[in-house]
Records
---
Amino acid sequence: MAESAEDRTKKYLDLGHSEAENHAKTQLELYEKRVKDTSSVTNVISEFFKTNLIGFAKHYLRSRFGAKHPYQAYPRNGDSGIYKLQSSIPSREEISIALLSDWASDTTESDAVANLVSRYSPDYTIHMGDIYFVGAPKEVEANFTAPYSSWYYGASGSLALSGNHEMYSNGNAFFQHLLPAMYAMEGEVKKTQQAGFFCLENEHWRIVGIDTGYTSVGKPFLEILSPPDCHLKDAQIAWLRDVVKIGDPADTRGVVILSHHPYLSAFREEYVRPGEQIKVLMGDSNRPVIWLWGHDHRLVIYNMFKNGNGPVAYGRCIGHGGLPVEIRLPDLVDLNKINYYDTRVRTVIGRHSLGYNGFVRLVLQGKKLTAEYRDLEDTCVYEECWTINKENGQLEWNVVDVIPGLAVR
C-alpha cells in the first residue's frame, strides 16, 4: 500500500536535531521501503531489528566516530568559486534565482514546491542546506540526482550549501554525490561546483553562499562542553578575503549572504560567529547586507538588526521548503526582532498546526533586487525590493506587498 502524503508528513513532526534520531529515521525509511518492495514479509519485528537497528548502529557509529570528509576549498581544479551571473535567455536583462532551504525531504509538499519552481524557469536554483534525514547517498539520489527527483536545475546554474543534516553523515554524500551534480555556467561552459560555498556576481550585486554546515556538528561528548558555533573555516575566510575581497572599500555592490544556519532567530539557536567573522573582513564599513538562511522551518522577515559584533543585516528565514512548518509564536522577548511571520495554517495533523511551504524568487534587474516569497499554492506572501546606491554601498528598502500574517511593528 502506497504511503499517504499525511503519513509522510508525520515522519517529520516533532523532528529532533540529534544525529542519533535522524540516523534511526533513515534506517526506518530503508526498512519501510524493503517492506513495500517485498510481496510477502513475515516476522516483521525480527526483520525490523535486523534491517533497521543493526543498520542504524553501524551507520551511526561509523559516522559519529569517523572522520569528516576532507574540506574542499578554492582554488580547486582551476576554479575560483566566483561566477558571473548570466541570463539563460540572452535578450533578457533580468536574472532570476530560486532559493530553497530545508527542502530535500521527499515529501508531497517539497514536490509541489519544486514543481512550482519549474513553472518559473529560474536561471539559477540554490539549495541552502539540509537533506533529510542524514544526507545519506540514497537521500541525495531521491531528492536531486535520480531521474524521478523533482529538483529543478537552472539553465544558468544549480548550487548547494550544506546544513547540519548533511554533516550527520560526515559530509560524504554532500561532497561525493551532490556537489558533482551542481554547477554554474560560464558562457557555454558548465563548471561543476567544487566547494560548499560560492559567489555569483554582476556589476551591481554579489550573492555569496557561505558554508556554516561543516562546523555545525561536533564530536560526541566534546560538543556538550563546547557546542558547535558554525564558524567559517580558515580556507573559507581566506577565500572571502583574498578572492572575493568582501572587504574592498571600493567595491560598493550590494551584498546578499546565503547560509543554512541563522544569523538571528526568535525561535531557536542563533549563530553569531559567522557574522562576526564576516564583519571583521568588511572592516569599519557600516554598509548593511541582505542575509537569507534556513534551519528554522518557517518563513520569517526580521527587522534590520545587528547581532553581536556582526554586520547590520536585513535577515530573512526561508527554511520552509519541504519540512512541516509548525506554527508557534516566539517568546515575547523576541517579538521585537520580527517584522513579519507567516502564521497562516494550511492543515492540522493531530495537535500540530502546519503552515505553508514555499521558496523565494529573487529577481535582479540593474540596481534593483526584488524578493518574492511564494508558497506552494503560488501565493506571493511577501514581496520586497532593495536598490543599491553604487556611490556608497547603501541599500534603499521597500515593501511591495504583504498578505495577512503576524506583523510586528
---
Amino acid sequence: MSSILTYNHFKRGGEKPPSNEVATKYWHQIEDERVQCDLCPRACRLREKQQGLCFVRSCIDGAVKLTTYGRSSGFCIDPIEKKPLNHFLPGTPVLSFGTAGCNLACKFCQNWDISKSRQTDTLADAASPEQLAEAALQTGSRSIAYTYNDPVIFHEYAIDVAAAARERGIRSVAVTAGYVCPEPRTEFFSFMDAANVDLKAFTERFYHKICGGHLSPVLDTLLYLKNETSVWFELTTLLIPGENDSPAEIEQMSRWIVDNLGTDIPVHFSAFHPDYRMTDKGNTPVDTLNRSRDIARRHGLRYVYMGNVHDVAGGSTFCPNCDQLVIERDWYLLGQWNLDPQGCCSKCGTWIGGVFESSPGDWGRKRQVVRMS
C-alpha cells in the first residue's frame, strides 16, 4: 500500500535548497598532488576532479569534498520492519532516504539503480537537515533511516540530519554494510540509535570476488557496535544460491556471532532474486532459508528471521524460554503482541532483547512517498 504526501519544506522564512558541496575531514595529502580519502577501507587516491568509487566524494581544490550534500534519490515513510529492524520500536513509521553511489561493488545489488548510479539526475529531491527532521516530526515518523545506499558515504549529511532529528526527539537508523574506517565510524555511530548491518557473507572470497571489498573491516564494525556503543543493531544476510548459503558457512557465521556478539542479536536471512550483474543465479529456495534459520538457532541465536518471503512463523518473534509467540508479523503488519510494558514475555517474564515501548505502533504495511516541494 502506498500514497504520496507533499511536504512543503521551504515554507519557513523563505529557506533555499542546501548547497550540494561541503568540505570533509577524513582525508590526507599524498604524493603526486593527490589526496587519499580516509573514510572507508578503499582508501581512494584521487587527483584533482577525480571521484572516488562511491561517486559522491571528489577531489576539489586539493581536498576531498562531499558533492551531494542535501540531495536525495527520494524520501518515503516505511514501516521500521522493512529496514529490517524487528526489535526496534515495532510497528512505527520511519522516514527513509538515500543519495546515490556506494563504496562497495556488489554484483547482486538489489538497489542498484540508486547505489550504483553515477548520475546526478538520481538526486532529484533536496532537503536540508533541519527540513528533513521537521518533516519527520510533522509526519509522525518516530525515526529517520539512512538507507537505499550506504550512509557512510554521505557521512556529513547523515550526521547533520541525525543531529537535527535528535533535537526534536526523532531517532536515527543506519542501514549499512559497515565498511568504514575506525575514526569516522566512531563519529558516525555516535549519532545513530539503531542499525541494520548487512553481513554479506562469511568468507573473504565472497567479499573480494563479489563485493570488491574485504570481510575483516565489517567484522571490526560489528565488534565496535557491540563493545563500544549503545546502538541497537541487527544483521541481515542475503543468501545467494551457491555463493554464501552452504551449511558450513552458516554454521561458521552463527558461531562467530554467538561468540562475539551474543545470542540476542537478531539475524535476518533474506531471499535473493536475480538482479544487476548476477542474473545467472536462481531465487533462494525457501528450504535454504529454513535450513539456515535452523542452523543459527541450533548454535544459540535466539531471534532468527526469514526475509523477502511470506512466512508468518519465520517473521515473528518467539520467547526463547517458553516459545510463546510474543510479536506476530505478517509481512510488515503486526498481529499478536505479548510483551509486557518492560519488554518481557507476558507468559514467563523472559526479557526480549530490543528497544520496545509499552505498546506497538500501528503503521502497518503502508508505504508513503514524501515529495519535498
